[in-house]
Amino acid sequence: MVFVMAAGGTGGHVWPAVAVARELRRRGHQAVFVGRRGGLEERLAPAEGFELEFIEISGLKRVGLVKQLRTLWQLPSSTFRALGLLKRRRAAAVFSMGGYVAGPVCLAAWLLGVPLVVLEPNAVPGLTNRWTGKVAARILLNFAEAARHFPADRSELSGVPVREEFFRLAAKPPGEWFDVLVTGGSQGSRRLNEAARQSWPLFRASGLRVRMTLQTGPAFYAELAREFAQAGLPGAVTPFIEDMAGALSGADLVVCRAGAGALAELAAAGKPAVLVPFPFAADQHQLRNAEALVRAGAARLVLDREMNGQRLYREVRELAERPERLESMARAVREFARPQAAERAAEALLRAARGVGLDREAGQSKQ
C-alpha cells in the first residue's frame, strides 16, 4: 500500500514523519512525502530514500495580510494538485503532522474519502489539526493537555515518533569538559545565537571547563564562526547538524527551543535541557510544551525575552556545578519518551487503510 506523508517546513514536522515512513517501509509498504520547495523536507525525505512531491502553499497564522491573501489564492490550486496526487498514487491513507503544508493534502483526502491519521505533537493543537481532528480516523497525541480538543473515542496518547538511533544513545559519563549543545533548530535562532556570542567572554574569564557546540542556522553561520574562532574557546560552530543523535550523545546539557520534535528527541536521548520557547509560536504552543516538562522536573525554562549571555552563562554554570540535578532532570525527561510511537502510528495508518477500528486500550497498553 502507498501512504502519503503530509509533513513539511521544519524538522519538527519532517523527522517524526520520517520515523513513521521508515516503519511503513519496514513492513513492506511505500511512503510518499508531500511538501513545498525550500522546506527541510526537500533535502531530508530524498536523503532517507523517500519520494517527494511538491505543492505551493504558505501559512495563515502570524503572517501579514499579503501572505494571508497569497495563501488563500494558493489553496484551490494546491488542493487540486493534492487531489491528483492522491488519485494517481492510489493513497491508502494520509498521515498528517499538521502545519500549513498539510492543509491542502488533508482537504483533498477528506474530499476523496481517503482515511486520515493525524499526529498532534504539541500541548496546544495547531489550526490544521484542529480541523482535521474532526474528520480523522485517528488522532495521536504527544501531550495529555491536547486531549480536550479532540474526540475521546478517536484519540490516544502515543507520543511523537523519533528515529530509533536516539533511543540507542548511552548515558554520557562525566568528563574533563562540560559539553553544552546550543541549537535553535535547522534555521537557527537569532536569540540563542546572540546569547551564545555574549556568553563566550564570560566562560573564558571564568575558567569553567565548558565546551560549546552551536548550531547557528545557515543565515548566521559566517559571522558567528569568525567570532568564535577569535574567542579562544573549545567547541564548534556549525550551520546545521546532520547527525543530531550524535550531537546529543556528546552533550551534558542542551539549550534549545521547545518544539515538540526537539523535546521528543531530548526525551529519547535522556538529555537535560534549558528550554527557551519561541515567543511567536502559534497559540504559545512552545511555552505550553516547555511548561509540561518543567512541571515534571525534566527541564529548566527561560523566557525568550530573558535569555542573554549572562543568563546563559548562569544557567550553564549552575547546572555544571550540580551533577545531581542534571541526573534528576535526565531521569525525569526519559519519562516523556515513547519508544513505540512510530510503530503505533504505522499501525494506525494500516488499520485506517483497511477500515479496521482501532482499540484505544490496546494502543495505550503498548506505551
Explain what you see.
It is a single chain. The protein has 367 residues and is α/β, with parallel strands linked by helices. The protein has two domains: 2-162 and 339-365, Rossmann fold, CATH 3.40.50.2000; 166-334, Rossmann fold, CATH 3.40.50. The protein is 45% helix and 16% strand. It contains 14 helices and 13 strands. It has a seven-stranded parallel β-sheet, sandwiched between helices. Strands 10-9-8-11-12-13 form a six-stranded parallel β-sheet. The relative contact order is 0.13. Mean pLDDT is 89; it is low at 358-367.
Helix and strand arrangement:
Blueprint: E1 2-6, H1 11-26, E2 30-35, H2 41-47, E3 51-54, H3 65-89, E4 93-96, H4 102-112, E5 116-120, H5 127-132, E6 138-141, E7 155-157, E8 178-183, H6 190-206, E9 210-215, H7 221-231, E10 235-238, H8 244-249, E11 253-256, H9 260-269, E12 273-275, H10 285-295, E13 299-301, H11 309-320, H12 323-334, H13 341-354, H14 360-365
Parallel strand pairs: 1-2, 1-4, 2-3, 4-5, 5-6, 6-7, 8-9, 8-11, 9-10, 11-12, 12-13
